[in-house]
Specification:
The chain is of the alpha/beta class and 116 residues long. It contains four helices and five strands, in the order αβαβββαβα. The longest helix is centred in the first third of the chain and has 23 residues.
Length: 116
C-alpha cells in the first residue's frame, strides 16, 4: 500500500540533501588548489620583519598570508602576541574574517533535517 505521508517526508529529505550539498560546496571551495606552507609562528614573524609578507588574512588565531614573491603561508598566532602592530609597522595589508567552523555546517544540516 502507498503511504500518503511518504511524499512530504521524501520531499523534506530531498531538500535537506540539496541544502547539505550546497553548504558543502561553499564550505570546501577554499580547500581546492595549491596548499599553503605551514610556518612556525617565529618563522612567520621573521618573514614579516624581512618584508616577505604582502598581505595577511586573520581568522581567529589562524593567519593566512601571501608572500611578496608569490605563494601562501599559514601560521597559528598565540594569544597576546601583538601581531597586528607588527604587520602594520611593515605595511602588510590586513584583512580579518570570522573563524570558519565546521560546527556551523553541522548545525545547518541538522536544522534542515528537522523540516518535517
Amino acid at each position: 500500500m502507498n503511504n500518503p505521508n511518504a511524499a512530504p517526508h521524501f520531499r523534506n529529505f530531498a531538500i535537506a540533501a540539496a541544502v547539505m550539498a550546497l553548504l558543502s560546496m561553499f564550505y570546501f571551495q577554499n580547500t581546492v588548489g595549491p596548499q599553503a606552507d605551514q610556518l612556525p609562528y617565529s618563522a612567520f614573524i621573521t618573514a614579516v620583519e624581512q618584508g616577505e609578507i604582502r598581505s595577511a588574512t586573520i581568522q581567529g588565531q589562524e593567519v593566512i598570508a601571501e608572500r611578496s614573491a608569490g605563494g601562501t603561508v599559514t601560521t597559528y598566532v598565540p594569544q597576546g602576541a601583538g601581531l597586528i602592530a607588527q604587520l602594520q609597522q611593515k605595511g602588510v595589508v590586513i584583512k580579518a574574517e570570522p573563524r570558519r567552523s565546521r560546527a556551523c555546517l553541522v548545525a545547518c544540516c541538522c536544522r534542515c533535517c528537522r523540516l518535517h
